[in-house]
Structure formats: C-alpha cells, structure tokens
Write a structure and sequence with these properties.
Residues 10-112 form the Thiamine pyrophosphate enzyme N-terminal TPP-binding domain. It comes from Larkinella arboricola. The strands form 3 sheets. Strands 2-1-3-4-6-5 form a 6-stranded parallel beta sheet, sandwiched between helices. It is built from 23 helices and 17 strands. It is α/β, with parallel strands linked by helices and 580 residues long. Helices cover 41% and strands 15% of the residues. It is globular. Helix 3 (51-65) packs parallel to helix 5, helix 3 crosses helix 16 and helix 8 (228-241) runs parallel beside helix 12 (331-348). It starts with a helix and ends with a helix. The protein has 3 domains: 5-169, Rossmann fold (3-Layer(aba) Sandwich), CATH 3.40.50.970; 201-366, 3-Layer(aba) Sandwich (Rossmann fold), CATH 3.40.50.1220; 381-579, 3-Layer(aba) Sandwich (Rossmann fold). Helix 6 (139-157) links the parallel strand 5 and strand 6 (163-169).
C-alpha cells in the first residue's frame, strides 16, 4: 500500500465522478498527488510550470468540457498564483477542483520553507474550502477524508458551478519507495442526485398572467456558451411573438436579422421621450454579464416595471437594479415551456394575436439594422490603418465553425461593436467573470488543447506580454492562432474619458513599451508574421488560418494615437446618428 493512500483514493474518486482532466504545476511537496494523477490510467495530465497560467489553462479546458478540471500546485506562494484563475472561475461559474499541497499545520510560521497560511486562502472566491488531515492513523480520519472528498467534488458539480478548494497537508516521506505499489480503490462513492427546479402550476399561471399583461416585452441574454437549443427557442419567440431579443457577442447571439446586437450604438441618446419609448414593461434576462455599457445604463435609468431573471440556481444578482422575480429554472427549458403553454392557451381560446405592441420589436430591430450599417460604413474605409478596422477584417476572415477567445480591454469591445454573422458559426469566449487581462491567452491555450476546432485568441499587447507564459510549456497545440494587436501600450486609457484627459496619461496609465511578440513566438515554436498595413493584412490572413503542423502568431502593429483619434471620430458618428 502507498504511504499516501488517501491521495490515491481521492484521485480514484475523481475518476468515478467523471473528472479526468488535470493541470499540474511541478513541486516537491505536491509530489505524492502529482504521482497519483500521473499514474492513474484514466487521468489526462498536463504540466504547466507557471501556476497563474496553469489555473487559466484549466479554466479554458473546463469551459470546453463543462466538467470540473483538477488543478494541482505545491505549497507556499505557488498557491497564491492560482488566485486570479480561481476568481475568474468563481464569477464565471466554471467548475475547478483546486488541490493544493501544504506542510503540516505545526510548521506554519516556524521558519520552514514554502510555508504560508493556506487554509481558506481563496476566501470567498471558492464555493467552499476543505482541508484534509495530515495523519490517517485513526479510522475516523480516513472516514473524514473520504466524506470530505465526496462533498468537495459534488459541490464543484452543483449549480451554480465553480471552484472548490481542498488543502492537503502532507508529511514526509513524499516520494514512494521502489517496492511501494499504487492501488486505486476501492473507494466509497457518495452520489449526489441533481434536483431539477420545478414551479407549481399556480406559479406558472401567475407568470403567464404577468406575461400577457405586459405590452412591451424585452428578452436580454448575458454571457453564456453557444447553445443551439436556446437560440432556436429565442428565435422562434422573436419571429412568432414579435418580441425583441438583445445580447452581446459573448452571449453567443449571432447577427441574423432577428436578434438585437448593437444597443451600444442606438441607446446612446439623451432624448427622454425616445428613451421612454424603448423602455420595456417586462424584462426577462438569462445568462451572466453584459458588455454593453449603454444597455446597462439605459435599463438602470429606465427600469422595467417587472424583471425576471431565469437561471438554474438561486444566487441573486441584480445588475440592472430592477429585479422583481428570480426564477430558478434552466433557461432553455423555461422558454420552451413558456412558449408551449401560452401558444396552447391562445389556440384553445382561438386567439391568433401575438402580443399587444408589435411595434416595440420593430423599433428595436429598425434601430439595430441602422446601427449595424453605420458601423460597417465606418469600418469599410481604408484611408487610415487603425485597430478597430483591423479587427473587423479579422472577424470576417475567421474560419467557419471555429472559436474566438477575446481578451479584455479594447479587443472585446471592438468585437462586441462589430458582431459576428450567424452563418460564420463562430463561438465566442471571454474572461468576463472578473474582466481582467491576466490569463486571457492561457484560457485560449486550454481551449485549444481540448477541441479540434481552430481557436483564435485576439489579444492586446499588454495582455499578451502579461500572460506570455501561456506559451512557456510543451503544450501549445497546432490549432491555436494568436493575433496580437500591438499599439505599444494600454490603448484603452487613451480612449475612455477619465484617464485620457489627465496629463499623467503617458507615464502612469498607458505603460508604453517597445516590445515585439516575435521572440516569444519563436521561443514557443510558432509561425510568426507581422503586418503594418491593410495590404499586408490581406496578404497574411488566408495563410494564417490554414491548417498547419505548428501554431501561428500574427502581430499587427498600429499607432495608439491614431486608434484613439479614429474611435473618437466614431463617437461623433454615433452622436449624429442618435440626434437624427
């Protein structure tokens, strides 16, 4: 029997519960856990030296498989380096099982190496922290470890999903002897059955009455994965009931003539009467965060009379400051049942009418189409080489049935303003749980390791250099395409109003840097190309997205002052658009 048999039980329990992916950062104190994972025949392990990058690579994998991913690191400051990824996973509801090796408690603050306070180290950014005992002599200790391991894994898989932490104090010896055998199991599995939220018939009738009594209805979809079933029922509601459906690019609502994707353009209007005309009586939301600042400001200033949030759990969030009902239901199932019940009710009563105010959707869709044309007209010009126009051409060139991972700061805003057409079938991901620049590239690497699709990471230079350790491993897959928008500084600070007006802009906000991505690409074995004009971009794009036996990196160099000037010019266009 192995010295650390409880770790073999933990790994076997993970496998029994469907967890088969692990990202490991090397270390000595964590060696027993690393060996248990490496030697289990059903665990796929990946080794990433930088813990911060490792955590985000695990996030990227978990996004794809929609199952918990194990993250392992050694004791000490290594654990703190997982914190950004853990926080992102918590707020984006991505399941991780974070296993941190530790020294026994009696050695804390005793001048021993790699020893810090690791109990509850992630605070409120995990669903729960657990800690196993360092000693397993007494049968109760083994029972406790077995029970806690079951509870932790079950919790990571329970809605709302998210990271769960198990701290593992380990005594020496840490490494097995030559005659030590690894036997996985037997282990007791405590199954936790999933409960499907259900609403009583009386509640459904009350919701239907509220629905029918509201003349102007609006459905808004926050961040979420591509869900064909959800898109289908929302499109059906939009087409047949003439109800506007609004979403950002990270909602994975495509531009298809039905869905509203440009609220940032046409809601930026000061006329009180016009804004009042766009106010819904009933707002129904699902999904997570929204990018569109104008949409959020509009609903906070002109709140609906009723606001339903549909989600499969009861954690309350009220970003529009108008919530009246939290409905614990899986969104697709909710909209399908709502449509079916009301459609049947209208059939029985021989009522062929859709909804009271059909013009409400027409107003939203007309404005959305005009806004889309305005953006296209602005970006089609090629007299000035600037970032946003570059992004539009990149989006147009994305392979069909591929993935786009958009970094925070300006890239995700550019993409949201441009949008993606339905026929492109491009799934969009972004780290909008905390909206930080750290880990954006690592998350894309994790995704590319898990899917056969082409994965394109669109990232700014500051975010790229901040996370270039994402490429410092032996894992970078051939289906990864990295596009670096290099304007040699934090360009968003020149574009948003506050810092752009300060005399300290250059020195304290933009963090000007002269770096190129070329050396990083070469170190990672990536095919590298740099462009500085529209003609060079057009020549580079066709080959960039073709299949290859190596990953590729395209660096696009622009002038950040020119970028800011062009975005300012776009804002003037929007002002004129909304004043007409």
């Amino acid at each position: 029997m192995a010295i650390h048999q409880h770790l073999l039980h933990l790994v076997e329990l993970c496998v029994r519960k469907g967890i088969r992916q692990a990202v490991i950062s090397p270390g000595s104190r964590s060696a027993p856990l690393t060996l248990a994972l490496a030697r289990h025949p059903e665990i796929t392990t990946r080794v990433v030296a930088d813990e911060r990058s490792a955590g985000f690579i695990a996030v990227g994998i978990a996004q794809q498989i929609r199952q918990p991913v194990i993250v392992v690191c050694t004791s000490g400051s290594a654990v703190y380096n997982l914190a950004p990824a853990v926080a992102e996973a918590y707020f984006q509801e991505i399941p991780l099982l974070v296993l941190t090796a530790d020294r026994p408690k009696e050695w804390t603050h005793q001048l021993d190496g790699q020893t810090i306070y690791q109990t509850d180290i992630f605070g409120k950014h995990v669903k729960q922290s657990f800690e196993l005992p360092a000693d397993y002599v007494h049968p109760d200790a083994r029972w406790f470890a077995e029970r806690v391991s079951n509870e932790a894994i079950n919790l990571a898989r329970t809605e709302p999903r998210g990271p769960v932490h198990i701290n593992l104090p380990l005594r020496e010896p840490l490494y097995p002897t030559a005659d030590e055998t690894f036997e996985f199991g037997p282990v007791r599995v405590i199954e936790q059955l999933s409960a499907t939220p259900a609403l009583s018939p009386e509640t459904w009738h009350r919701l239907q009455d509220e629905w029918e009594s509201a003349e102007r209805k609006l459905i808004a979809v926050g961040q979420g994965p591509h869900d064909p079933a959800l898109l289908a029922i929302l499109k059906k509601i939009s087409e047949e009931w003439r109800i506007p459906v609004v979403g950002d690019v990270i909602s994975n609502l495509p531009r298809n003539g039905e869905f509203i994707t440009q609220p940032d353009v046409f809601l930026n209007v000061s006329d009180t009467k016009i804004r009042e005309e766009r106010r819904p009586d009933l707002l129904i939301t699902c999904g997570q965060s929204f990018i569109s600042k104008q949409f959020k400001l509009f609903l906070r200033s002109y709140p609906p009379r009723q606001h339903w949030q549909i989600q499969p759990h009861t954690r309350l969030a009220d970003p529009f400051q108008s919530l009246t009902r939290l409905i614990p239901y899986e969104p697709t199932a909710f909209f399908e049942k709502l449509f079916s019940d009301i459609d049947y009710q209208r059939f029985v009563s021989n009522d062929d009418e859709t909804d009271s105010d059909n013009s409400f959707q027409e107003k939203w869709q007309t404005l959305d189409r005009k806004a889309t044309r305005l953006v296209k007209r602005f970006l089609i010009e090629e007299t000035v080489f600037h970032e946003w126009a570059v992004v539009q051409r990149l989006l147009d060139a994305l392979p069909t049935d591929s993935q786009l991972h958009v970094a925070n700061s300006m890239p995700v805003r550019y993409v949201n303003l441009s949008g993606l057409d339905e026929n492109q079938r491009v799934e969009v991901f972004a780290n909008r749980g905390t909206s930080g620049i750290d880990g954006c590239l690592s998350t894309a690497v994790g995704a590319a390791l898990t899917t056969l699709k082409t994965v394109t990471a669109l990232i700014g230079d500051v975010a790229f250099f901040y996370d270039r350790n994402a490429l410092w491993n032996n894992l970078v897959p051939n289906n990864l395409r990295v596009i670096v928008l290099n304007n040699h500084g934090g360009n968003i600070f020149r574009i948003i109003d506050g810092p752009s007006r300060q005399p300290e802009l250059d020195a304290y906000f933009e963090t000007s840097q002269p770096l190129s991505a070329e050396n990083t690409a070469k170190d990672a074995g990536m095919i590298y190309r740099k462009v500085t004009s529209y003609s060079e971009l057009k020549a580079a794009l066709p080959d960039f997205f073709t299949e290859s036996d190596r990953p590729k990196l395209l660096e696009i160099e622009t002038d950040r002052r020119t970028n800011a000037e062009q975005f300012s010019r776009y804002k003037h266009w929007v002002q004129e658009f909304n004043s007409n």
